[in-house]
Each structure stands twice: as C-alpha cells, then as structure tokens.
Amino acid sequence: MIAFLQILGMLINAFVMLIIIQFIIGMLFAFNVIDGSNQFLRQVYESINSLLDPVLAPIRRILPQTGALDFSPLVLILGLNAIMIILGNIVTP
Q1: How far apart are CA 91 and CA 10, in angstroms?
Q2: Which helix (H) or strand (E) holds 66?
Q3: I need a surface site. Which of 12, 29, 40, 86 has the fewest CB within 10 A?
C-alpha cells in the first residue's frame, strides 16, 4: 500500500508541475515577455491546457469570477496536497 501511495504522490507532483508550467507560460504570454507568435511555446501551452482543462473546468464553475485572475489552479494544487496528506495518514497511522 505504501508503494501505491508513493506512485500516486509522484503522479500528483508531476501534475502540480504541469499546473505551474502552464501558469508561468500564461503569465509570460500575458505580459508580452514572450511573443504570442512563438509557435513552440504556444503549442506547449495549448497541449498543457488540453490536459488540465477537464480538471480545472469544474473548479472554475464553482469559484466566483475574479476578473483576469484564475484561482482554480491554486485550488487544485491545495486539493491534491490535502488528498495526499489524508491518504498518508490513513496508510501510515
């Protein structure tokens, strides 16, 4: 059971890294640090968005509109970390 928890933790960490990469690339595009015509980064950003949108969309529907700021990635990261803490406490009392 501990091995399963470690594998799950590794997958969650990879997912959190994708969320952070999406956020950083989005900010770079938003503040024109990187030109929007950079096809490589645009493709990476769109690929990550296509992976994360099915998970972030329900969170976005629940959260109130905050204008340009999107807090759904933060809520997802906090939720994933809470799940890991709960599972860790269940497996290793």
Answers
A1: 16
A2: none
A3: 40
pLDDT tens-place values along the chain, 93 residues long: 888 889 999 999 999 999 999 989 988 888 889 888 889 999 999 999 999 999 999 999 999 988 878 899 999 999 999 999 998 888 876
Distance CA 3, CA 71 (A): 32
Q: Residue with structure tokens 């956020």? A: 23
For residue 89, CA distances in Å to 64, 78, 79, 82 come to 32, 17, 15, 11
Q: How far apart are CA 57 and CA 36, in angstroms?
A: 24
3-state secondary structure of 3: helix
Whole-model pTM: value is 0.85
> Taking the alpha carbons of 57, 60, 61, 67 in that order, is the dihedral positive or negative?
negative
